[in-house]
Amino acid sequence: MAHDPWQRSYDSPPSGAVPADESQQGAVPGRVAAPASQLVLSPQRLRRLLGAVAAISADMDIRTVLHRIVEAATDLVGARYGALGVLGDDGAFTDLITVGIDDPHLCAAMGLPQGHGVLHTLVADRRPLRVPDVAAHPRSAGFPTGHPVMRTLLGVPLTVRGTVYGDLYLADKTDGTLFDDDDENLLTTLASAASVSIENARLYDHLKRAAEHFQRRMLPVLPDLSPLQAAVRYEPASELPRLGGDWYDALVLPDGATCVVVGDVTGHDVEAAPLMGQLRNMLRALAFDRCELPGLIVSRLDRALTMFEDPPMATLVFGRIEPGPDGYTFGWSNAGHPPPLLIGADGSARYLAPARHGIPVGIDASVPRFNHAQALPPASTLLLFTDGLVERRGQDIDTGLGDLAEQAASLARAPLDDLCDALVPRSGQVFDDDVAVLALRTPGDPAQ
After folding, report:
1. Are 166 and 34 in contact (CB under 8 A)?
2. Residue 362 belongs to what domain range?
């Protein structure tokens, strides 16, 4: 069982707890003990309060915001330890953000607070709480092994839109004094400002998730391309807007060839994703109906885009993978897109970048398109991707392309899913742009 050093029951008021103001005993639940308008602060402390509010409002990642709230509170009040317990919909704690306890193993061993301690009392009472001597409290359960011993406690509830989101609490002032009315009023004011930042961060997170869900729903599920192996990945940009124009597609054509495409519609807003869907469907229909050389299909797409008053622009690589008596051949046309990467089973890697490549589609339908062809050795991997995979702020794109080739070559014999997971990790990687990847591998024996 996880420990709460300040456990006590619900059925009696906390012995040793000091209300902020006796006049608040009959206050409406949820009302703070001392509104910000009643605060009288020195210029220095006022500047620190404003700086703390600015700090917690400077980010939209919810966990970063929560951590900044605890840091700002401990610094502002001059406390040695701070924590923010986050509540779930069922009233149980779902997360605990701490400052002052630097050992992550200790925090993990302590676990989350249980439902019978002082933190839930704060939730139930919706009012600040001060405990001048934790050890003397009749409900104190002590501290887990290795946990720093804490003497005093100051806590306030965090309320977002009338609902208690969690508790913000501090322990032990660095100067050894007890928490006083000024500390409590200051922490209450900070908690009030923090609730706005929490709500903004939650809305931001909801918007990111909704945008990403919409984008992923617009991308196709690949059919069975056997005997070719295939794997795809899509990852939105790390920051809003998470709606982009990157896409991938693959299908088996009536003549037996496998059609593949990776593209990127210009723009990153609400309009880019629907335009991507239109372009993908138009290109798919043209490829399936005509079964022509890739350059001819891309030219037809160019002409079809002239029906728009303001034609959308996109870069893309469109190709056909065809089996033959001597193995597989990849024929393609490039419309201003990063070149495909061919990875041999021997660990070699090179970009398919002929001197002649076309401009993006949607610019000028009269500009000719070029066709290229490349034999695909047995067990080789063809990687098509969008520029978000290799572009980084402050870094030359050639550096990104070189890094990608080196990493992919080291995974030449890895399963395709492992290769894609390494190139497009789901966590820990920051992408300035959305990323689409399509990887295909030929059979080890071309006669199969």
Report:
1. no
2. 219-441
Among candidate residues 301, 321, 434, the one with its CA nearest the CA of residue 375: 321
The model's pTM is 0.60
Q: Is 278 left (phi over 0), alpha (psi -120 to 50) or beta?
A: alpha
Domain shared by 248 and 176, yes or no: no
Q: H helices of 59-180, where? A: 62-77, 104-110, 118-125
pLDDT at 30: 37
Q: Does residue 1 sit within a domain?
A: no
Answer yes or no: are the C-beta atoms of 157 and 191 closer than 8 Å: yes
- Residues 243-281 have pLDDT tens digits of 668 899 999 999 999 999 999 998 655 567 778 888 989
Task: Tell whether 299 and 358 lie within a shared domain.
Answer: yes
Please give the pLDDT value at position 349: 97
Q: Which residue, among 80, 47, 87, has the nearest Cα to 66 in the 3D structure? A: 87
Strand partners, 230: 440
Q: Are residues 140 and 279 in the same domain?
A: no
**Nearest-5° Cα angle at 230, 225 to 232:** 130
> Which residues, other chains included, contact 33 with Cβ-Cβ below 8 Å and sequence gap of 6+?
19, 20, 21, 24, 27, 127, 128, 184, 185, 188
Same domain flag for 206 and 223: no
CATH number, domain of 387, equals 3.60.40.10
Q: Is residue 107 a contact partner of residue 83, using CB atoms and an 8 Å limit?
A: no
Structure tokens at 229: 């192996």
Residue 404, CA atoms < 13 Å, CB-side half-sphere: 28
CA contacts within 13 A on the Cβ side of 35: 4
Please state, in angstroms and rounded to a whole number, the distance separating the CA atoms of residues 211 and 234: 13
E strands present in 7-137: 79-87, 93-99, 129-131
How far is the C-alpha of 87 from the C-alpha of 167, rounded, in Å? 8
Assign residue 190 the CATH number of its domain: 3.30.450.40
Q: Determine the pLDDT at residue 80.
A: 93
Residue 3 pLDDT level (bands cut at 50, 70, 90): very low
SS3 80: strand
Residues 264 and 199 in one domain: no
Is residue 371 within 8 A of residue 352, CB to CB? The reply is: no
Lowest-confidence region among 28-37, 90-99, 431-440: 28-37
What is 209-236 written as a DSSP string? HHHHHHHHHHSPPP---TTSEEEEEEE-
Place of tokens 């906390």: 14
Q: What is the enclosing helix (H) or strand (E) of 203?
A: helix 181-218
Q: Are strands 327-335 and 341-343 parallel, antiparallel or unpaired?
A: unpaired
> Tokens at residue 319, please?
């190709």
Q: What is the average pLDDT score of the chain?
A: 80
Q: Provide the domain count of the chain.
A: 2
